Amino acid sequence: MSLPPLTPPAACEVLVIGAGPAGSAAARQLARAGVDVLLVDQQPPGRDKVCGDGLIPDAHQALARLGLLEAVMAKAERVAHVGCIGPRGGRVDVPGSLAVLPRRELDRLLLDAALDAGAHFLQARFEAPLEADDDQQPARVGGAVLKLEDGSLHELRAGLVLLATGAVPKALIAAGMCERHTPSGVALRGYVRAPALVGKIKAMEVVWSRAVRPGYGWIFPAPDGCFNIGVGVTDSHRAVGGKGAKKELNLRAIFDAFVAHYEPAARLMREGELLGELKGAPLRCTLAGARWSRPGLMVIGEAAGSTYSFTGEGIGKAMETGMQAAEAWLAHRDDEAAARARYETGLRALQPRYDLYERANRVNAYPWLADLLIWRAGKSERLLRRMSGVLNETSNPGNLVSWRGLTRIIWE
Ligand SMILES: Cc1cc2nc3c(=O)[nH]c(=O)nc-3n(C[C@H](O)[C@H](O)[C@H](O)COP(=O)(O)OP(=O)(O)OC[C@H]3O[C@@H](n4cnc5c(N)ncnc54)[C@H](O)[C@@H]3O)c2cc1C
Predict the structure, then answer these.
(1) Cα(380) to centroid of ligand 1, in Å?
(2) Amino acid 368: pLDDT
(3) What pLDDT score was predicted for residue 361?
(4) Cβ < 6 Å from ligand 1: which residues?
(5) 342/221 same-domain check
(6) What is the pLDDT of residues 374-397, one digit of tens each?
(7) Which of 16, 115, 347, 370 could cross-link with 208 by S-S, CB 3.0 to 4.6 Å?
(8) 128 touches 139 (CB < 8 A)
(9) Cα(167) to centroid(ligand 1), Å
(10) Which domain range does residue 61 map to?
């Protein structure tokens, strides 16, 4: 369903740029509290986003806080386990609250929920920040220059701008917030319809192998007899440019190698129907690569690097950081410096978790670590519980792959 076109207003209280999970979550929470919010995206409602579409426990929690978990689960494919498969074919199924819903549907549902709460939507592209009409030093962002659908430029004043523009750094650069232009990772996915394989691939399967190093391949069961299949290289900037670097990263070749290595993937591609093309996209991880705020502006979601390295999961944390920014604004509407300070404190509290995921990235670089973990988890209930704790965010992933952690794993 398309939305009636909106005459661009001259001003609003909060301008949210980007209607992905981060932007829509922030807009919904602000609008629910009575804030005048304008949500802007360069693409029309119902746009697609290249993603694995996996909703892990942190996404379930964020959706519950937004009051949307039931609505999402009514459309999503429910999944009970993440199936971890090592290079030698060993497998362990880690339980958790999981689901898969194509982003075209998830993001539309989130956007509609923001509009239901009272936010407005405008299709337009953020071009540059506008300086506020005051003498504050350093200059405060007081709105944005937007490019409208007819190509004209429109100046819009706002008390706060939230930048939720995802992993592509163009808008971050324009806003003077980008500290790293290269992505932290890149990934490629396709949709395959294969009704005959429904019930045969039941878990969200994550497969480590030398073919996909440093990264992993996946097959996630989606609704309507479809599967999301892809590969991600989580350290692509180093993989391409750093020590021991590959000259060129060819994601399509890595995808083909994954399919050749993993028989269920080969079967899916052989027996199923590929819907559309395989598509790739960058990731920004570890809360790094961008400034989190400047006067009048906060960066939320993947633009702030809110995606986990190691797993490349980011939908849940995008919503969480969006809600954190909304809460910070609601607590300090008359003192934007205090709102920013509160938002940054919230992100700093999340940082240690991201650092641990960065450490856990070793599994992607050294897939034999996955073999070791899977082999031990098959023998140790306790280790399986710890792996489930990582998925549910009740225990730390980094501890599993530190040398001390590995020694414990071998003996426990
Ligand atoms: C192949 C792949 C697989 C992935 N798999 C998973 C997974 O299974 N589970 C998971 O949790 N995460 C996954 N991720 C990560 C996940 O996609 C991101 O973490 C998530 O989309 C971040 O949400 P966001 O709202 O911050 O940004 P986005 O979802 O990227 O939304 C940003 C929005 O901003 C808009 N925008 C950008 N620039 C402008 C501009 N200048 N003006 C106006 N609008 C603009 C865009 O059109 C877009 O709608 C995957 C990523 C990739 C690439």
Answers:
(1) 37
(2) 82
(3) 77
(4) 17-23, 40-43, 47, 49-54, 59, 125-126, 164-167, 171, 187, 189, 230, 281, 283, 301-302, 307, 312-316, 318
(5) no
(6) 888 888 888 888 888 878 877 766
(7) 370
(8) no
(9) 6
(10) 54-101+184-281
